[in-house]
Amino acid sequence: MKKKTGNLMALGTNDLNAVALTTGFGVLTLVDSTAYMLMIFFTMGLTISWKLTLMAIIPMPLMALLIAFYGSKIHERFTVAQDAFGDMNDRVLESVAGVRVIRSFVQGNKMSNAFEK
Question: Residue 112 belongs to what domain range?
Fold first, then answer.
C-alpha cells in the first residue's frame, strides 16, 4: 500500500496527536467515568429509589447504539476530510519542490555565465 507524501504528513501531524491525547487523557477518563457511574447508580439505588434508578439506566443501551451509529458516520466524514488534507499537503510539497528545481535551474544559469567570464 503506497501512500503519498502529503497523506503521510497529514497522518503524522493529526493522527499522532490524537493517539497521544487518547492514551493520556482517554484512558484516565474511561476509568474515572466508569467508576463514578457505577458508584452513582449504586448510591442512587440505595438512597433515593431503586425504581427511579432503573428508569435512569434503561435508556443507556439506546444511547450507546446511537453513539456507535453516529460515531461511524463521523468517522467516515473525518476520513474524507483527512484524505483531502493529505491531497492538499501533497500539492504544497510538490509546489515547494518545483520552486526549488526552478531556483536551482536559474542558479545553474548564473553559475554558467559566471564561469564563462
Answer: 5-116
